[in-house]
Amino acid sequence: SLSAGLDLPGRLLFATLTLMTLIAILVFIEEAVYIYRKIPSSKRSIIIWINAAAPVRGGPGLHRHTRHTGKFELEFSPSPRFFAIVIHKFLMMMIKECGGQKVLLRRFENGHFTITTGPCCCCCLCFPRVPITRQTLFWLKLGTFQFAVFRPVLVFLSIVLWTNGNYVLYNVSPKGPALWISCFIGALTLCALWAVGIMFRKVRILLKCKNIIPKFALYQFIVILNHLQTTIINIFATQKIIPCAPPLSSTARGSYIAQQLLIMEMFLITVISRVVYRRKYHDLEPPECVAEEPGDKKQTP
């Protein structure tokens, strides 16, 4: 255990990170109980999943903070796979907040999705707008669902190759599987984030009364801090920009620093998420009713 050999400042830091992790877990449990009691069942599980993103990502980091960890363990930990599901849940939450898929189609009956948005096609201004139909909603949901399905499959494949000695994490040559698996995971991630960005751009005005912009901002912070920040630190460690500090190598020290930052950042996001999601929001007014057909009157409301 690395914590056994820490000096006094290191032990104080470890104690502070432990306290932050425990508080974040307790805040999430209290928030989950509140959501279970106060939120309708159609939205309950989705909101709990989204609120769990920060404590789930920060909590296991405390365990990895006390050990000699490398990038391999960070890549194959359960947290990134859990967050892949959260991306899909956030898209479904926006649809639920609009009243569900049927109500959303009625609200935007003649509307269009703007697909020239990040992170994929923000510069492709020549792309046409896509009409909002049941089929386009299906493709958006498929864009996030595929990431939740294929990310664990690719991670499992990487573990199998690693146990056979065929997967070397730092081997980025075209002949090695690490480069191709990483590129494929990156492409799946961009497609999932693109689908969420398209939906958010359309519903952000409608859902402004439900604070969808702060919720989306928190979601974006989790994405950036978990992926971009960690990747940059790992690159610095691989290139020896972060010097080694015995008994830690450069890569292990980079992972050590990344976990320290993530624990503190996820703690702040957990507390802010409780404030944002705890508020009571009024339901949206129903869309204007279309002319009823004779068969509609027989249906139960």
What does this structure look like?
- This is OSTA protein.
- This protein has 301 residues and is an all-alpha fold.
- The chain folds into 2 domains: 1-69 and 244-280, no CATH class; 79-210, no CATH class.
- The protein is built from 10 helices and 2 strands, in the order H-H-H-H-H-H-E-E-H-H-H-H.
- A two-stranded antiparallel ribbon has the order 1-2.
- It is globular.
Please render the helix and strand layout as text.
Elements (H helix, E strand, L loop, with lengths): L7 H31 L2 H11 L1 H13 L5 H5 L2 H20 L3 H7 L4 E2 L16 E2 L2 H30 L13 H27 L8 H27 L11 H29 L23
Antiparallel strand pairs: 1-2
Helix pairs in contact: 1-2, 1-3, 1-10, 2-5, 3-5, 3-10, 5-7, 5-8, 7-8, 9-10
Protein name: OSTA protein
Membrane topology: Multi-pass membrane protein
Pfam families: Solute_trans_a
Beginning-to-end CA distance, first to last residue: 61 Å
What is the global morphology? globular
The DSSP helix count reads 10
Computed over alpha carbons, the radius of gyration is 22 Å
Q: In which range does the helix fraction lie?
A: 55-70%
SSE order = HHHHHHEEHHHH
Pfam families: Solute_trans_a (PF03619)
Keywords: Membrane, Transmembrane, Transmembrane helix
Organism: Nesospiza acunhae
Main location: membrane
Which terms summarize this structure?
301 residues, mainly alpha, single chain, two-stranded antiparallel sheet, transmembrane helix, 2 domains
Please summarize what this structure is.
Its main location: membrane. This protein has 301 residues and is mainly α. 66% of the residues lie in helices and 1% in strands.
